[in-house]
Amino acid sequence: MSDLAAAAAAELAALEAAGRLRRRPLIDSPDGRVVQLRDQGGRRTLVNWASNDYLGASGELTVRNGAARALRSFGAGSGAARLLAGGLAIHRRLELALARWLGCEEVLLTTTGFQANLAAVTSLVGDGDAVVLDRLCHASLYDGARLSGARLHRFLHNDPADLARVLAGCAGARRRLVCVESVYSMDGDEAPLAPIAAVCREHGAVLLVDEAHALGVLGAGGRGLCAELGVRPDVLVATCSKSLGSQGGIIAAAAPVVELVVNRGRPFIYSTAPVPAAAGAACAALDLLRRDPGLPAALLARAAGLRQGLAAQGWSVPAGRTPIVPVLVGGEAETLALAARLRELGHYAPAIRPPTVPEGSCRLRLTVTLAHRDADVRRLLKVMEGIRKKEEGGRRKEEGLP
Length: 402
Ligand code: PMP
Fold this sequence. Notes:
Elements: H1 3-17, E1 27-28, E2 34-39, E3 42-48, H2 61-74, H3 89-102, E4 106-110, H4 113-124, E5 130-134, H5 139-148, E6 151-155, H6 160-169, E7 176-181, H7 193-203, E8 206-210, H8 225-229, E9 235-239, E10 249-253, H9 255-264, H10 266-269, H11 276-291, H12 295-312, E11 324-330, H13 332-344, E12 347-348, E13 351-352, E14 362-367, H14 374-398
Parallel strand pairs: 3-12, 5-6, 5-7, 7-8, 8-9
Antiparallel strand pairs: 1-2, 2-3, 4-10, 9-10, 11-14, 13-14
Helix pairs in contact: 2-11, 3-11, 4-5, 4-9, 6-7, 12-14
The protein binds 4'-deoxy-4'-aminopyridoxal-5'-phosphate.
The site of 4'-deoxy-4'-aminopyridoxal-5'-phosphate has 14 residues, from helix 4.
């Protein structure tokens, strides 16, 4: 074994000992509702509680057909970056459709949502500027902030008063960019966007809101939490990889802001444009939402049923209304054991551990989608109730109680 391979193996062993080793599952996914997990030589069908395909769009025939049409018309790959020969009509069609739907001046499509955040943040701030992030912001916002060369500051999660304090402390910076998510990916909670926007206005700061988990989920027709609250951020970032059942990052802003990202955003400039099928699928998913603006409400109703059921059983489930339903467990070992037990019982919900979430807040992150059936939720609740009762029985026995 080379020195590097031996060092890597030692690092992996340390991760495993800490309960933090990650492995790639092998999944055949006939639709968004179930996964077929291949493990130990077999293939098992499990109900999938780990997908962000909130509306079940990726499995919809019209969305698959949208992908197929784009594939046939434009080919399998885009062949080049957008600014070279990869700027296809299907990309522009999606940008224009999103701009019209969101009611904003201009939209830029990037290859992934991660790249959208990298490109937006690094285009807007640099040396001499400050980026102020909510503590729980996604890795892509943190990485964009670090790459930008601006000074990185953090404020307490969802705390506008702390944001005001941090902004006052970096008043000397040339430009101050505040980054928040509208729905946090691992907690499913919503940002108090109106007070956050007010603090930004008061301090002359620029506001970027990542709506990755809110698009298609909240707001009229699924237009997101900014739309619901009437907040207009300077930059709205989102992704086609969740409710739009496809792939590709979205940056929505005033036209000059978007054009600046086109000229400065290295993750956009130097990466091959999204594959045509991804853009075609996202166009079709957007049509789906426009035709049936009631989809988000149906999703929230299903999420409410699961959240209420789990809370009634005594699980630690934070209040909320989004389809991200975290079940807080605590340590790595207990969370891995709970995930393994669920898997034995037919449900797929991986354990979420640090560094994705803070120390001591390991959890199952359950996501409800419209691809599920009501019976799936009922079955999961029954299984979770059984596990809970067994745990309680074990505890009482340990404490010598009858
Ligand atoms: N922002 C947030 C809040 C996310 O949760 C994610 C995906 N996990 C991204 C951005 C990145 O999006 P994509 O998967 O399209 O790269």
